[in-house]
Amino acid sequence: MTDQEFQQAADVLRQAYAPGQPCPPVRESLKDLSVENAYAIQQINTQYWLQQDRRLVGRKIGLTSTVVQRQLGVDQPDYGMLFADMCIPDDGEVPFDTLLQPKVEAEIALVLNRALESEQNTIADVISAVDYVLPAIEIVDSRIADWDITIVDTIADNASSGLFVLGGSPRKLDEVDLRLCGMVMERFGEQVSVGAGMACLGNPLNATVWLANVMAAAGRALQPGDIVLSGALGPMVSVSPGDIFETSISGVGTVRTRFSEGADS
């Protein structure tokens, strides 16, 4: 594949951010697209956004469920970039019309206090680099029409990133067992998703070790202050205008988000 083909794919994905204009799967226009090439497309848009003065504040990890990995025929997670303008305050309102086809999932966010520059990190390295953890809701969104995605489609599309919401009460790692912490997500007080830390590659710290190694190898090592959305603790839930979601993660805290009613609000 040529640089021009990569650029065209990146342009199509970026233009699809306009509300109501999803695009066909990337794999349809770029046959035999590899995971490596999908990340190259993601990187083109990352560089574009950085040149537009967006601030890179962290990474998200996707595909941390072994069940979902099997469904997509892969044996490892993927990652996408987090920018400051993607962060919604706790209990803040999300403008529904800025999204295409949003879903929500509960996660634990890790905030780092030092860089992880090695390509061979251990879980001890990650533990020593974590300043604190927060409960989070990731609002995933796909620029691909009807969520018709494979692994290469979601990677090229910044790992289907949308927005994210962080809780406001930090916890130190020694205050919580990330593997065993239980999660409940409610919509209007009705339970819609449950899970635990072990659903995320056995432990959100395991997912973060993977990310740290991969990012160092890619030349974008995690830095002090970076936010890591470590992966879903339970099933994704579709969103409708006006929805209100609240997530509780034992030992970590609660986080809440509201979606606007849409065009007629």
Outline of the structure:
The chain is built from seven helices and 13 strands.
Distance between the termini: 45 Å
User: Sheet with the most strands?
Assistant: 8 strands, mixed
How many helices? 7
> What is the subunit organization of this protein?
single chain
Order of helices and strands: HHHEHEEEEHEHEEEHEEEE
Which class of secondary structure composition applies to the elements?
alpha+beta
What is the general shape? Answer: globular
Query: What share of residues are in beta strands?
Result: 25-35%
Backbone CA Rg: 17 Å
Which stretches are poorly predicted, pLDDT < 50 over at least 5 residues? none
Tell me, rounded to a whole number, the average pLDDT.
Answer: 94
Percent of residues in helices: 25-40%
Instruction: Let me know the number of strands.
Output: 13
Description of the molecule:
The protein has helices at residues 3-15, 26-29, 35-51, 66-72, 123-129, 151-156, 204-217; strands at 56-62, 78-83, 87-88, 93-94, 103-112, 130-140, 163-166, 182-187, 190-196, 227-232, 237-238, 244-249, 253-259. Helices cover 26% and strands 29% of the residues. The chain is built from seven helices and 13 strands. The protein has 265 residues and is of the alpha+beta class. The strands form two sheets. Strands 1, 2, 3, 5, 6, 7, 10 and 11 form an eight-stranded mixed beta sheet that branches. It has a five-stranded mixed beta sheet with strand order 4-13-12-8-9, with no helix packed on it.
